[in-house]
TrEMBL record:
This is Transporter. Residues 23-389 form the Leucine-binding protein domain. The keyword Signal applies. InterPro entries: BCAA_transport (IPR051010), Leu-bd (IPR028081), Peripla_BP_I (IPR028082). It comes from Actinorhabdospora filicis. Keywords: Signal. It holds the Pfam family Peripla_BP_6. It comes from the Bacteria. SUPFAM superfamilies: Periplasmic binding protein-like I. Belongs to the leucine-binding protein family.
Length: 409
């Protein structure tokens, strides 16, 4: 069986084959082995590879090829912890590999460490996760994905619109799990007067939630928020978000109580139905407007969607979309910087010119032009809530259930 690391490596080798001499080097810092979500690393490399192909087919970057230089942010995680491992690999990208920019941060608990290293070296970094404050006060950090803070009002307002007064939250003790649980409870309490039953669990230890789920069922909530993540304590699939879904069905919590998850892993349709089974029907999750059926897709978005679907036989998830978008923005920003005058020869000067270009130009993306405010380099897409309403649906066919004005689109 091919491992995620082998899949990611194959993508990188294919992307770099036509790079040629003196290529523009773009870094990838992403989980490629356990204990991280190594399948996320595969999706990042797939999107980045397509970004390189798009740039090559649309004029190139500075008249040169592009090379993707990847580092596994889980390289020493077992011995040193997630953060220290990511920081070390970021430093290698900055100092040893001398990349012009980096992308691919998936786990919130590594992103802050990587961001601090990037700030020290002036290395532009695009993150692919929802860390709400990762871009705040930082000159070199950018994001085209949506944050935990972006999605929370949408999620809680929807539950309130469904009449929910009592909401149960089962949350992993990861940075993402805690940030989401804190935000949901705070917003629901302040804006809707909701009552919450919140149970936190140790992500690296717990594999059985039946007792917690029985307690939740006895509490009789109106809505259940599954705030698990996509890895498990044993480092193997399925992740605990899936296991919680399965065990919630075993104890009778599902499907009697509607369930919402806190990030878009259901968009990986094949994996989702394989692991969640029939119990996953009816799940609601936050997402951008992106999917092949969305009529607002731009030309670059259509190019990406068609190329990804042709190559991998499925609609692209947003993790791949985000990486693709970031690579193409980096390429376009470098070209825009060069049009203003000759770029510096030293890597620090090139990075500085790239950041200035990112702050002063608009960039073509799947959802239209994107700009980065110099005060906060966060550009969120429009968000919706999606729901599977039939077992086996692809995310392209999932229903948009909120906000009301875009239902069914």
């Amino acid at each position: 069986m091919t491992t995620p690391l082998e899949l990611a490596t194959a993508e990188l080798e294919a992307a770099n084959a036509p790079a040629g001499e003196n290529p523009v080097r773009i870094g990838i810092l992403t989980p490629m082995t356990p204990p991280g979500d190594d399948m996320a690393g595969v999706l990042v490399t797939r999107g980045a590879r397509l970004g390189v192909e798009y740039l090559a087919e649309h004029g190139g970057v500075l008249g040169r090829g592009v090379e993707l230089v990847a580092r596994n942010d889980m390289a020493t995680a077992d011995a040193d912890g997630f953060g220290a491992s990511a920081a070390g690999e970021t430093a290698k990208l900055a100092l040893v590999d001398e990349v012009v920019a980096v992308l691919g941060q998936w786990h919130l608990r590594t992103a802050g460490w990587a961001a601090e290293v990037c700030e020290r070296f002036g290395l532009p970094m695009f993150v692919e996760n929802g860390h709400s404050t990762i871009t705040h006060g930082r000159k070199s950090i950018f994001r085209t994905y949506f944050s935990c803070a972006d999605r929370t009002p949408l999620m809680v307002d929807y539950m309130a619109a469904q009449g929910a007064k009592r909401v149960a939250v089962l949350a992993a003790d990861t940075v993402f799990g805690q940030e989401m649980a804190d935000a949901v409870v705070a917003y629901g309490t302040e804006h809707h007067g909701m009552e919450f039953l919140r149970i936190d669990f140790a992500q690296q230890e717990v594999l059985d939630w039946r007792a917690d789920l029985e307690r939740i069922a006895a509490w009789q909530p109106d809505f259940f928020v599954n705030d698990g993540v996509n890895v498990a304590a044993d480092g193997k699939p399925p992740g605990n978000a899936y296991r919680i879904t399965q065990q919630a069905t075993e104890v009778g919590l599902l499907p009697a109580v509607p369930m919402m998850v806190t990030f878009g892993f259901p968009m990986r349709s094949a994996d989702y139905w394989n692991y969640a089974g029939d119990a996953g029907n009816g799940v609601v999750w936050p997402a951008s407007r992106f999917r092949p059926a969305w009529p607002g897709m731009t030309g670059i978005g259509r190019w990406f969607t068609e190329r990804f679907t042709e190559r991998f036989g499925m609609a692209p998830p947003d993790t791949s979309l985000s990486a693709f978008t970031d690579v193409t923005i980096i390429g376009a920003a470098l070209n825009a910087a060069a049009e203003k005058g000759e770029l510096p020869s030293e890597i620090s000067g090139i990075r500085k010119a790239l950041i200035e270009s990112l702050e002063t130009h608009a960039f073509d993306t799947w959802r239209g032009p994107v700009r980065f405010d110099p005060a906060d380099h966060h550009s969120s897409p429009e968000l919706v809530l999606m729901q599977y309403q039939e077992v086996g649906q692809s995310f392209n066919d999932a229903a948009v259930v909120h906000p009301a004005e875009v239902q069914g689109t």
